[in-house]
Specification:
Elements (H helix, E strand, L loop, with lengths): L3 H14 L17 E8 L2 E3 L2 E4 L4 E8 L6 E3 L14 E3 L14 E7 L3 E7 L11 E6 L1
Parallel strand pairs: 1-4, 3-9
Antiparallel strand pairs: 1-2, 4-7, 5-8, 6-7, 8-9
Length: about 140
């Protein structure tokens, strides 16, 4: 059981410094409500193609396909990371990352735990320009 005085002093230090207070459960997951970010996908592009979030923030990405079935798959390690022991993005349901269902919007929920740039790309072959259909999630 954590020491209540220690928790209070940590919260007080965050408040005095102007830093946001983040709530976490005993297993380290961020319990704050998710910030919802909507992404549209159409032939060979995502909109927005660059997304910026804060480290520690719980994110819910909602992908909607405009023209045909698309999906999104996000790299869980930041670009250039040599450490593959701990992912920088912790998904509530890792099996949903890259899963595509026809006529169903894809929803991914995760906590951004490491700073860096994470590439996302289309998870379903959608034509000649499929390989160019990419974006960036930047954790600050």
């Amino acid at each position: 059981m954590p020491n209540p005085l220690f928790i209070f002093s940590g919260i007080l230090a965050c408040l005095l410094s102007g830093s946001p207070v983040r709530t976490q459960s005993a297993d380290g997951k961020n319990d704050a409500p998710a910030r919802v970010i909507e992404i549209s996908a159409k032939k060979y592009e995502f909109s927005p193609s660059e997304i910026r979030v804060k480290m520690g923030e719980r994110i819910q990405l909602k992908l909607h396909s405009v023209d045909e079935t698309h999906g999104v798959k996000i790299d869980v390690y930041p670009e250039g990371s040599k450490d593959k022991s701990t992912p920088g993005l912790k998904f509530d349901q890792p099996e949903q990352n890259g899963k595509v269902e026809k006529n169903v919007d894809q929803v991914l929920e995760f906590v951004a735990v490491k700073e860096g740039a994470y590439e996302f790309k289309c998870a379903k072959l959608c034509g000649m320009g499929h390989g160019r259909m990419k974006g960036k999630l930047i954790v600050e």
